Write the structure tokens for this entry.
Amino acid sequence: MRKMALVIAVLALAGCGEGKRVDAPKPQPTAATAPADASAPQWDLEVRGEITQAVSDLSGWLIEHSFIANVIKENGKTRILMGPYSSKAEAEAKQEEVRAALTRAKKQNIEVLVIERPAAQ
């Protein structure tokens, strides 16, 4: 009897909304998604350990704690960057957030620096 009631309920729900078309609302562009002015400076955070630490360990820790980081190799040097941020204040706020998480995790000898992103050529 339960199976029969379940089958009837599923069939009844499957027919709900039959013939009605509902379009999802289109997202409105916000200021955050608007393209940034190409001449405006952008900012990054560079995360690095004072002692030699595997880049994969540090970048993995950042990802585990919901910080999006990019590992780049520049002039033979591997760097971990977070960003870009549209303003220095936004980068500094994220810097404090990362520092607080590092302190809670008792990670020592790790620097989080705010750097200006070089202009694209």
About this structure: The radius of gyration is 24 Å. The chain has three helices and four strands. Residues 88-104 form the longest helix (17 residues).
